Amino acid sequence: MRLRNNPKANEILENHKDIVVFNPNENRGKWHDVFGNDHPIYIEIGMGKGDFIIENAKTYPDINFIGIEKFPSVMVGALKKIDEEEPLANLRLMKVDAIELNDIFLENEVSRIYLNFSDPWPKKKHAKRRLTSETFLPIYQNILKRDGELILKTDNRTLFEYSLISFQQFGLQFEDVCLDLHHSDGYEDNIQTEYERKFSPFGPIYRIVTKFKGDES
Predict the structure, then answer these.
(1) How many Å apart are CA 99 and CA 111, to the nearest integer?
(2) Which residue out of 119, 147, 176, 180 is catalytically annotated?
């Protein structure tokens, strides 16, 4: 799907400096100062139009959420929704690429990473661009706390199967694997993305919860 460019996107981001973090690498190791507390930090990589990260911030005020999106025109959609909400002190957004995360977070600074409906990059030659590939897993391992979770949701079976193999080969520990999230018991607290609401009627939503094994493993 072609991404529509918003020529005023960067200007809109500039007008939301209370929520959009510019030069996020300057906060490396100091994110708790940004939020003004020591609450856990959860990040969503590829937040889209923000439904998931906004609803999480509203539901869990004792957790700090950071939505990450590399396309400013997409981030504008999230900002419009945030403008309609009461101020959310536990939510920040930043425009970066996931490959830069080691420059933005210190080792063990993040407690959870969400990958929701990431681009499956279906061509084999593009496999290393997938957010569950060996390109990105070492980055997640570095910034996550030792007991931190990496959670994937996707409706793309090929990406799901690829991710299972990628996680297993990297030595991740599987905490939960769900083959049909919306038709399985025990997932009533699932917060949906805008994409998820639109496409879940057409097929199953897959979910994987993993952790990186400690050195003792």
Answers:
(1) 18
(2) 119
